[in-house]
Amino acid sequence: MSSTRPQPMIFAWATLVALTIVSWLLADHHQVSSGAIKLVSVIVTVLAFVKVLIVSQSFMELRRAAPVLQLVVLAWCLIVGTIVISFLLAA
Amino acid sequence: MSATSFKPVPGEAAFDHDIEQGGQLRGRWIPGEVGIWVFILTDMCTFGFFFCSFAFERKLHLQTFTQSRDRVSLGSGLLNTLLMLTASLCIALAVRSIRTAKWQSAKTLLAGAGLCGAAFAIHKIFEWQTLVHHGFKPTTNHYFQLFFILTGIHLVHVLIALVVLAYLWRVVSRLEKRPAGRPLTAYQNRFIENAASYWHFVDLVWLILFALLYLVK
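Structure tokens for the assembled complex are given below, as produced in the milestone run.
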């Protein structure tokens, strides 16, 4: 059922680490305008939900799981992500 | 509970790849059991509510949240995230090793995941201690109240995951002593997948917490 090769998991981990460092660099940069700050906040939030999908698809093996389970996790990301980002933009 | 107390369920395939080869459950397979996913999805809904509440509170108290967020260490958040991601990788690889009966490799990877998890927990306690030392307590303002509550709830999940991980390591140690070539039972396979799924869930919750508590300005 699982891939017998470790490479896809290591690739997923490397992608997660790269996205984490990109988010950290974006957040650590000192923006001056409120528009740029909002944009960075939205980008790091979107990247966080993308990382959640990578973890669920790769490490949790949802890629090969029942489609309904994949849909539930995707729906959670979309619903929670949309609400959070809406509040960030409204602030 | 010893490994020998696992009972194979009559009529169930011992390996999931048997299920795939047999085609009985193709398209309906889930990692672990339905029960663990009911728990994980319920917990995800609870954390989803917490994340939305945090964003809402931030909207109401933007200045407080912006100033307070500058007081937490981005480096600490980054280190915590890298530890959680590395632990998740170790567990995913350990599950793969268990399925291919590479017991020593599985034990090493589980120990690596445990070390990362323990380092996360210890670092989190030091981070709290540093914040409190500088006068930032749960009673300071809305941001720090949510910071301590959310990271505290998550830390409890990490500690539970570490206990599960230690038990999984013990199970693998017992499996290692079995006669070579004896397949895992469906029950054993599900337990291993349950434990791994729970750990990955704890990891993905942290990914959102890291973004909201440390990165969002």
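The CA atoms of residues 73 and 79 of chain A lie 10 Å apart. The first helix of chain A runs from residue 7 to 28. Further analysis is deferred to the final report.
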